[in-house]
Amino acid sequence: EIVMTQSPATLSVSPGERATLSCRASQSVSSNLAWYQQKPGQAPRLLIYGASTRATGIPARFSGSGSGTEFTLTISSLQSEDFAVYYCQQYNNWPPMVTFGPGTKVDIK
Amino acid sequence: QVQLQESGPGLVKPSQTLSLTCTVSGGSISSGSYYWSWIRQPAGKGLEWIGRIYTSGSTNYNPSLKSRVTISVDTSKNQFSLKLSSVTAADTAVYYCARETPGMATLYWGQGTLVTVSS
Q1: Which of A57, B38, B44, B119 fits a 20 to 30 Å CA distance from B85?
Q2: Which pLDDT score, from 0 to 100, does residue A93 have?
């Protein structure tokens, strides 16, 4: 089973600042890595897939990078609506299963 | 636009079987190449992938739940289902159904349904 870790657990950021979130896989997942945003009481929303491709309708301030085992989600200038929990997810072909990271909470500094 | 909606009992007794259904609208569950998935989230905790069924009918399950999980599809009703047997309080969670596109992650999610395991 591929284990995903995320850091930090909590990130305190002021509006307008940049946020950098990290995700690590216990073995290579190539570029089969997605990022989701989740707000309280809502289902997760897909932000990034393929490690760096923004999903439809996702603002350009969200960007993803990395491959193999190390990945980063960057929010270039945090808006009020961006304060949420962010999860990374691997969906590599082998083993044929999906795993999520434990999440990073981005809150207001 | 694809939409997914979970339904099923909100309360299940310990040792019984949790059964949920996801109704898909805006597209046929048997067309295209997709994984139809179940994910859960205990209150205040992270997301846990339960398993999925492919358009072809093949399934993949989380190894930690595999002995208790069955996911199936009913194409005549455009639905897929989750059965989780021998539940305990640890299975209390919001359960989401979702559609995953191979290579493109999970774009479509249901709104989630809370299932509580309690006597």
Answers
A1: B44
A2: 84
